Amino acid sequence: MGAQVALALPAKLRPVLRKPFGVLYEGVGKDTIQKIAPDLGSPTKLISVGDVTTFYLLESDIMPDVCVVDDRTKREPASNHVVLGTNHKAFTTISVDNPPGVITEDLINAIDDALRSDQHVRLFVRGEEDLAALPAILMAPIGSVVLYGQPNEGVVLVKITESKKDEIRSLLDQIIDEYDEGQFDSVRRKLDGY
């Protein structure tokens, strides 16, 4: 096996990631999830990224098909209450290493495996899941919903459409284009579903 391929977010693209990729529901906690719930519909897959978002979904009796957590919130350790709350017995857990500020090939593969599973999957990231929403949006089936926390603002709901996938693909292409093209061919193919 070759060296681990990892995409680091260039500084010039950080402002782009501060903007929500979907609809921002402002607020904190269970109240925010209550605002979101009527708009979820019945998604092909429901994916939650982030410990606090996942915790309050579960507290609201909404079970994501896939959740991505790292036992941290805003770069600090999450409370025991949140950590225990996201470790729901209905989940099969997959663990993956992913350093802060990057998207590793291992993370992409783990998201792919989780989305293909017919079980509820808790994807536990050793490191940081801060960028996991990007491959999740790109790889989720059309008609799915990705929820992720927007720090100090609320929760973002992203409905997965072909145009949303195109938007994220364009962003990830900008990140990939910062590197030597060849080494990311396998990552690009995996993100495009091949």
Mean pLDDT: 90
Question: How many helical elements?
Answer: 8
The H-and-E topology, N to C, reads as EHEHEHEEEHEEHEHEEHH
Give the percentage of residues in beta strands.
Answer: 15-25%
Largest sheet: 7 strands, mixed
- State the secondary-structure class: alpha/beta
- Topology, number of strands: 11
Question: In terms of topology, how is this protein built?
Answer:
Blueprint: E1 6-8, H1 14-18, E2 23-26, H2 29-36, E3 46-49, H3 51-59, E4 66-69, E5 72-73, E6 76-77, H4 80-86, E7 92-98, E8 102-104, H5 105-116, E9 121-127, H6 133-139, E10 145-150, E11 154-159, H7 162-176, H8 185-191
Parallel strand pairs: 3-4, 3-10, 4-9, 7-9
Antiparallel strand pairs: 1-8, 2-11, 5-6, 10-11
Helix pairs in contact: 3-4, 6-7
